[in-house]
Records
---
Amino acid sequence: MEYNIEGGLNMELEDLKTTWQSVKPHIDSQINDDVANGVLSKRSDIKSRLLKRAIWEGIITVICLILMALSPFWSPMKFPYWWLAVFCSTIIVTNLYGIRIYRSIKAINLWEDSNNEILKVILSIKKLYRNVELATAIVLIPLLIWLSLTPMFIHSWRMFFVWGITVLAFSLEYLWYRNNIKQLNNLVNWEKE
């Protein structure tokens, strides 16, 4: 009788093993699908966050452009018109690049593009973003320093105001830039988020 029990147990174990072997590939593929969907979901959240940030950048830039263009009517600073023209032109150019960055992010198809294609787009966005930040700094920082050292501004509250606003604006822009680059990196390396 013991032999039948052992034989029966061995038979049941063999049946369980056979059943498990037949079901295992389906379970593995389901787990892989779930993991892939989780990755795509995280990437989709990051992409949405980047798009929202790009929209906010555009809105803030347009508000700054309007305020700067209309500053002769409301500002006690009395900026020279040539200075306002250069500053507003720089803001317009950066906004156009912001639109290009937004479109590049929006064009990423997380479900169809390969990781290599996504990485290429991310690298081009990062390069474009870095170049815009660098060009803006090269144009605006010397302009702001030069403006603050003109006779109308030197050794007055205006000079210190321009310096303070310059340091504050570029510090905030640097933090915003670093956060955007981190989000772009997370779009490729989602597990580091």
Note: The two ends are 61 Å apart (CA to CA).
---
Amino acid sequence: MSNYIDTIYNKEERPYTKYPRQLCSYLCSRFKINKGQKILELGCGRGDFLKSFKDLELEVFGLDLQKSSSELLFGIDVRYINLEKDKFPFSDESFDVVFSKSVIEHLRKPEHFVEESKRVLKRGGKIIIMTPDWQSQHLIFYDDYSHVQPYTVKGAEDLLKVF
């Protein structure tokens, strides 16, 4: 199987930008995520957001299906598993924050993803799941052949309420 990350997210097609740093700074401010807290990124890809969270002095860990050749991941603990079926390789209540951006829409069975996120999250921790909103993105959602499950805000909220 070809590598999705290195093919679709190569530097020539999608160059590095300031956006990951800006988003991570915003999320830390908005959700009161403090220096030294432990964050797990699910579907960390080439590492843009992990690197940005690390630069903001968080203790970062990542999970993804495929390895990336990205230099952004140098020195970061990233492990490779199937997020839909494998147990996350961390103890219960290990993280202050579990974060994913543009990942859940790639999963056919998001229930395991959400259950495991909850399991590794510390009591009082935060789960931040970002996904394209189907209502505003429906014309381009399937431009990414690996998108399988579109979400509306209500659909995402209901999924999280169940767990």
Note: The radius of gyration is 15 Å.
---
Amino acid sequence: MGHRILPAADAYWRPSNQMGVMNTDLAGQLGATMLGARLWRLTPGQASTRHRHRTQHELYVVLEGTGRMRIGDEVLTLSPLSSVLASPDTVRQVFNDTDADALWRVGGAPAEAANTLEMTPETLA
């Protein structure tokens, strides 16, 4: 098959393991193996895990709301449809200190496991 479709109504959303942020694994549900892709919906006061990757570059796109992000030593404020590319070794975190939801599309390649519950303490460090 040359393509797959995930209707919005069929997307499975769940809270993230550590921070409880609602997200849906688009890449996993569509069977992608070469990249990761998720939607993250942060309600006011929520934040994702502060993290970096071993090999994965990540593209962050603000779809709705005001995007707030720590990347390296900078704090960014992004309007809808603005984007940021983060290299693997750059520490990053999206957060929402506004009074409205923020919806992010985050994609990365090459695909890299992101289940913190399955990582060793050394990998987490």
Note: The first strand starts at residue 14 and ends at 15.
